[in-house]
Design brief:
Elements lengths: L8 H14 L5 H13 L16 H15 L4 H5 L1 E4 L2 E4 L9 H15 L6 E7 L5 H8 L7 E8 L2 H13 L4 E5 L10 E6 L4 E2 H5 L3 H4 L8 E3 L4 H13 E10 L5 H7 L4 E8 L5 E8 L1
Parallel strand pairs: 3-4, 3-6, 4-5, 6-9, 7-8
Antiparallel strand pairs: 1-2, 9-11, 10-11
Length: 290
């Protein structure tokens, strides 16, 4: 970025946008804005009222480091330390998967089910593989008002992930009961609903993931095994013993394994249905315990 011309906010954004485009980054302008706003410790919208301002050298130094690291593939969310999900801000680091827009559909489906409970009901939900706590915290934050009481449990195999999730629950002022557990082994239940965005990437798919995912996000949260259904099969088997009668199971899956997941949902389940994402691909499996 050496030049005699002043490095104003506008010029920093333009240079970085071009640099990111050369790196093949799709949302080049947006990412440049997010990183510069974080370096300057201002809201992104404030960049537009400060186009002609020339940030101090220490702020530009932070920004240069961000740009360099993003250029090598490090995700923006890890660089700035947060990610927006369902209009809430969640702390993230390399111990947790970065929340995706696709997972918001899991939350929407869960909220629709919660709305179907009779007014004044006491309902218990468990989020399996909570990671940053995005699903559990969002459900606790947006619980339907007619419910009498919603108790949210959240489990994860990673103690470090739980620490991040606990901080996010505190930030958003909700009570979530976090437990370190291999799927449902360390919780007794019974639950009225189990939701999960489990690892569902096969070994072959994992090797083909983009570098900014494969090289930075936790492998434990992504890779399921050789075929991609290994964790889901274990979870489905455990869920039959942890759900109340007529309890609901919601799973986020890869569209590539939808048919295999539907095939092994056995006689313990009814109303086993795939829910399509905005692209028309099966993304959520919904099932009711008999």
């Amino acid at each position: 970025m050496a030049s005699t011309e002043a490095w104003t906010v506008k010029r920093l954004l333009e240079w970085t946008t071009d640099f990111f485009k050369q790196k093949g980054i799709e949302s080049a302008r947006l990412e440049a804005e997010i990183l510069l706003a974080a370096a300057l410790k201002i809201k992104r919208i404030e960049l537009y009222t400060n186009f002609d301002a020339e940030p101090a050298e220490d702020k530009r130094s932070v920004f240069r480091d961000f740009v360099k690291r993003r250029g090598t593939g490090e995700p923006v969310a890890y660089l700035v330390g947060f990610k927006e999900f369902y209009s809430l801000t969640f702390k993230v680091d390399r111990n947790v998967l970065i929340p995706r827009p696709e997972t918001e559909q899991l939350v929407l489906e869960a909220i629709d089910i919660l709305k179907s409970f009779p007014k004044g009901s006491t309902v218990t939900v468990c989020d399996v593989g909570t990671g940053s706590g995005a699903v559990a915290v969002t459900l606790a934050k947006h619980q339907p008002k007619p419910l009498g009481n919603l108790t949210v449990h959240a489990v994860d195999l990673s103690r470090k992930a739980i620490a991040v999730a606990e901080e996010n629950a505190k930030t958003h002022g909700v009570d979530v009961r976090f437990v370190e557990s291999d799927l449902l082994t360390a919780v007794s239940g019974p639950f009225d609903m189990i939701v999960s965005n489990p690892p569902y990437v096969s070994a072959t798919e994992y090797e083909a993931l983009p570098n900014d995912v494969k090289n930075f996000e936790p492998k434990l949260a992504l890779l399921a095994g050789p075929v991609g259904t290994e964790v889901i099969e274990r979870l489905v088997a455990q869920a039959t013993a942890k759900l109340n009668p007529a309890g609901r199971l919601l799973l986020e899956i890869s569209p590539m394994i939808a048919d295999r997941v539907l095939a092994f949902m056995g006689s313990d389940w009814s109303d086993v249905l795939p829910c399509n994402d905005l692209a028309g691909r099966p993304r959520i499996i919904s099932a009711t315990k008999k």
